[in-house]
Amino acid sequence: PRVRAALLLACAATTVAGKALLGIPAEDGAERGAGELADAVFRLMHPAGLYVFDNIADASPFAVFPEVCAFGLNSDAVANVGHAPVADWIRAETRAKRPAYVIVSHETTRPVADDGIVLTPVDIVVRGEIRCVRGKTFGSAVDTVSEKTFSILSVFPPEEGRFRGAFAEKYVFDPEAAPPFGLVRGGWDVPRRGKEGRWACDGAEFYAPVPAPGKSIDIEFAAEWFTGDKEDAEPQELRLDLPFRGECTVATVPHKRGASLLRWTVSRAADDSGDAPLVDKYAIRASRRLDAPGYPPALAARFVAVP
To answer: Cα(first)–Cα(last) distance of the chain, in Å?
Structure first.
């Protein structure tokens, strides 16, 4: 209930003027009540918790209050620096037993593995309507209603017992679940406006659970391979470079428009008793590579959200 209420705040306050964020009703009355809602929700938030929003604008109503620790990820900073420093910080905080949450501005129910941390949805998806007045370049302002959607993911170290239960047999690799978490900087194309999913280049890396010695895990994903060349309609074969001794099946992506639901089965050698972490990086390897204007070289496949 506490986190649900916090997200209801985000639904109402992300477009509020600065005064309303401090509990002062908007002077024109267009968004009256958002300030009072902000005050009420901040009183419910865990004062010792760490809240990370995937959108810096969504974090703004929380970040101005010293009682809570909340910040948002700037897309430009993530593109230039990567999210590794953020993941390192969150990992250190969770190991110090501090409650940590990642809040994404879309619907997701997928757990996400990252470097030394696991993000697991802890509540149902929260939706809220924002009613505000928007101005136009020409003509009078209009009263509009837009919807905001938030999903909450609890962050914990994989050493906790619930990790093996959550990923005992299958991991769904969904690059849209909580980006940029789960993806390794470099090798992935940037999200394209109006385009679903994102392209992975040959060698692109992502985080996933590591099976115990002698065990295996299925990594499910959805991907599309379509070059636009009807005369060259060969399918794409995707393999994984493993961070341990073992084997991986080949996933064949048909040459067609539209994504296919596929899987890799990853098996670890029984005598591989090295000190492998519970979560590690896997690299995608492609049998064919596509070069397209405006995209990174050596494209392997376009990965989309898993239905």
So the answer is: 28
The amino acid sitting at 167 is F
Mean pLDDT of the chain: 79
- Segment holding 253, helix H or strand E: strand 251-253
Q: What is the pLDDT of residue 56?
A: 83
Inter-CA distances, 296 with 199, 201, 291, Å: 9, 7, 7
Q: What is the DSSP letter of 43?
A: H
- Own/partner contacts of 289-298, CB < 8 Å, gap of 24 or more, are 289/202, 290/227, 295/189, 295/199, 296/187, 296/189, 296/199, 296/201, 297/201, 298/201, 298/202, 298/203
Q: How far is CA 158 from the centre of its chain?
A: 17
Q: Is the pLDDT of residue 30 over 50?
A: no
pLDDT at 13: 36
**Cα–Cα distance measured from residue 70 to residue 124, given in angstroms and rounded to the nearest whole number:** 21
Q: Tally the residues of the chain.
A: 307
Using DSSP's 3-state secondary structure scheme, residue 151 falls into strand
What is the tally of helices (H) and strands (E) in the chain? 7, 17
Q: Residue 177: is it exposed, middle or buried by C-beta count within 10 angstroms (0-12/13-18/19+)?
A: buried
On whether the CB atoms of residues 243 and 280 are closer than 8 A, the answer is yes
Q: What is the pTM of this model?
A: 0.80
Tokens found for residue 208: 């996933």
Over 70: is that where the pLDDT of 8 sits?
no
For residue 241, what are its two tokens? 């470079």
Q: How far apart are CA 81 and CA 248, in angstroms?
A: 31
| Of 94, 112, 99, nearest in space to 159 by CA | 94
User: Residue 274's Cα: distance from chain center in Å?
Assistant: 30
Compute the distance between CA of residue 173 and CA of residue 140 in angstroms, rounded to an integer. 46
CA–CA distance, 251 with 240 (Å, rounded to integer): 9
The strand pair at 170-172 and 216-224 is best described as parallel
Residues 10, 46, 2: CA angle, nearest 5 degrees: 55
